[in-house]
TrEMBL record:
The lineage of its organism: Bacteria, Bacillati, Actinomycetota, Actinomycetes, Kitasatosporales. Its EC number is 2.1.1.386. This is Small RNA 2'-O-methyltransferase. Residues 10-261 form the Hen1 N-terminal domain. InterPro entries: 3'-RNA_MeTfrase_Hen1_bac, Hen1, Hen1_N, Hen1_N_sf, Methyltransf_12, SAM-dependent_MTases_sf. It catalyses: small RNA 3'-end nucleotide + S-adenosyl-L-methionine = small RNA 3'-end 2'-O-methylnucleotide + S-adenosyl-L-homocysteine + H(+). Residues 332-417 form the Methyltransferase type domain. Its cofactor is Mg(2+). It comes from Kitasatospora terrestris. Keywords: Magnesium, Metal-binding, Methyltransferase, RNA-binding, RNA-mediated gene silencing, S-adenosyl-L-methionine, Transferase. SUPFAM superfamilies: S-adenosyl-L-methionine-dependent methyltransferases. The keyword Methyltransferase applies. Belongs to the methyltransferase superfamily. HEN1 family.
Amino acid sequence: MDWAILGRVFISISTTGTAERPATDLGFLLHKHPAKVQRFSTAHGVAHVFYPEATDTACTAALLLEVDPLALVRQGRGKGRGGSPDLALAQYVNDRPYAASSLLAVALRTVYRSAMKGVCEQRPGLAEHPLPLRIELPAVPVGGAEGGATAMVGRLFEPLGWSVDAAAVPLDSAFPAWGDSRYAKVSLTGELRLADALQQLYVLLPVLDGAKHYWVAPDEVDKLLAAGQGWLADHPELDLITRRYLSRRWSLTRLAMERLALARLAESDDREAEELDNAVDDVPETETGSAVEAVQAETATVAVAEKPQPLAVQRREAILAALAETGAARVLDLGCGQGELVGALLKDARVTEVLGLDVSSRALSAAARKLRLDRMSERQASRVRLVQGALTYTDARLKGYDAAVLSEVIEHLDLPRLPALEFAVFGSARPTAVVVTTPNVEYNVRWETLPAGHVRHSDHRFEWTRAEFTGWAEQVAGKYGYTVTVRPVGPLDAEVGAPTQLALFRLDNPASEGSATR
Ligand code: SAH
C-alpha cells in the first residue's frame, strides 16, 4: 500500500462537534462545502476534496492528490500564461526530484489557502478557536530520519500539543521479512486552531521527508518563517526543522536562524526583515551567477545586516526611485537577468504591469523560479511576463510602455552593437521614460579586490568614465527626442565619483508620441 508509488497522496482532517457547534463548521473553515466532491488542479496534479462523514457530531475532510508527473513538465511550459511559452524551463523541471510530502504540502497550501491564513469570512471568529482535530496520513515519507522514523514524528509534533501515533509501514505486508518501507502511518490528535495545524503540516511534512521537490531558493526562508509564525521559534527541534526544511542548505539555515533571532529581538519588526531580505536576495556584481551560491558567499556578512547595503540593493532602490518620479505603471525590465528588479516592481502597488526580457533562457528560468511564477495567484501572475528576446533587434512586444529599465546591461554589448540597442529601445519601443545604469570605471580603483585595469565582470565589454557615460546619454537623448539627467548611485567618492551611474531619460513630447504610435 504505497500511496506515493501509486502516485497518490492522502490526508484527512477530522473534527467533532455538537448541535450548538456542529462539526460541519469544518466546511466553512476549509472553504469547502461538505456536500460536494471538489476537484482542484494544483501545480503537480489534481487534488480531490471530499467528506467521508459530515454530521453535527463528526466531520472529516479528505484531500487526495493524484500526482501527475507530466504536470511538472506542462507547468514548466508556463501554463498558458501569455508570453511565457518561449521560456525554456526544462531545466527548472529537472531540478525537482519527486517527493510526495512536499507535493502534499504545496497541495495543502493551494487547496486550503484561506484556511491556512486563518481567514473565515462566513463564520467570523471561528478560525480563532482551537478545535478538536484528528489528522490522518496513511503514508508519510520519512527520509533519513534522525533517531528513527516514528520517533521523529513524535519529536516534531508532540511539542506543538499533538498526541502522535506513528507506525512504520511494512514494505509489503505479505513479506514481513522485507522489513519496513520509508513510509509511516501517522495520526495526530490535538486541540488546535485549524490554521496552526495546516501551517505546521505545511512545514513539517517536507521536514519529515527530508527532500523538497522544488529548488530551495532564498525565498524559502521567507516561507518557512511565515508559516512558522507563532510556533517555530520556540520549538525544541528548531535546528532540525530549519535544516531539513531548507534541504541542508547551510547558508539558508543560518540565515533563517539569524532572522528568527532578530525577529525575537525586534518583536518581528517587519522593516528589519525586509532589509535582511534585500541584502540576501541580491547578487552584487556576480550578476547571472547562481543566486544560491551568492547567498552562501554573502551570508557571513549579512549576519547583523547593518548598513552599508550591497551596491546592487542601492542600485535597485535608485532605479525604483527614478521610476517613481516618472509615475510609470507599465514597466519594461530589459536584460532582466534573474528577475530581482521584476520582483521589487511587483511589490509596488503603483506598478500594474512588468515585462521582463532577457536574451538568456537560463536567466529567465532562474527568474521564473525565484519569482515563484508557478505559485503566484492569478491576479499577481497577470501583472508579469517574462519573454526571451534580443535588445539589438526591434521588437513590437516592447511598444507602448511607460518606462524601460536597462540595469547593468549596456556594458554587456559589443560597442559596435550599441547603436542597434539604442534604436530598438529609444527609436522603436519608445517608452515615455528610460532608466539606464552602468558601472563608473573611475571607481574601480576603490574596489580593493579588483586587479588594476580590470573590468568588474568578465562579460563586460566596456566600462565608461563619468564623462563617457554622460556624453553617450546626451547624444542618445538628442538623437531620439529625450531629455536626460545623470546621477551617481552608491557611496560618493570626492575624487572618482560613485560606483554606479544612472541616467534618467524622459521623452520630450509624450502626448503627441502617444497619438502617433497608438
Ligand atoms: N538587469 C539585471 C541583470 C544585469 S546582467 C541586473 O541589474 O542585475 C546583464 C543581463 O543582460 C544578462 O542577464 C544578459 O543575459 C542580458 N543581456 C545581455 N545582452 C543582451 C541582449 N543583447 N539582449 C537581451 N538581453 C541581454
